[in-house]
Amino acid sequence: MMGLHPTHVKENYKEELLHVETMLAQHKFYAVGEIGIDLYWDKSTLAIQQDAFRQQIKLAKQHQLPIVIHCRDAFDEIFEILEEEKGDDLFGIFHCFTGTIEQAHQALSYNMKLGIGGVATFKNGKIDQFLKAIDLKHIVLETDAPYLAPKPFRGKRNESSYILKVIEKLSEIYTISEEKIADITTENSKAVFGV
Q1: How many domains are contained in the chain?
Q2: What is the rounded CA–CA span in Å between residue 129 and residue 99?
Q3: Residue 123 scores a pLDDT above 90
Q4: What is the CATH number of the domain that holds 59?
């Protein structure tokens, strides 16, 4: 993946985006990301985060690549830009999805898959309460390592092997085998990344 993360969008972001553009032209990548908007740490950069997000969506479309969206405290702002950019050439993953059922449906309406990780195992994560209402064809699995380790490792350093705990939780939610969860979500990720 290649992209300028929203928490790194600073005054020199146009120069950084030129680097992203150059790298996309010179090397093979499977997605543009993580891109998006993060208003958790700094709301003062909203305007330049929005511009960087738009520019990188355009780059993804130009290179026929999916986007991987980072969204923290910014669903409305993300959806506003996705609405402007929607089309058959816009697709990707809503990374580490933590929104509501309504936000899930809105994300899916923009041809996004929901990236589901450790949060699905959290008692206060809430997505486990509605996830079964989302068809598995819209789900990909992820860890977000080293962050957001699933139960029983919550609060510790996350690692790739912990994805098995996410599969276990989704098997419980969807009441189908762990193997079936793994098969479906693997095929979904292959479709997004074109592998």
Answers
A1: 2
A2: 11
A3: no
A4: 3.20.20.140
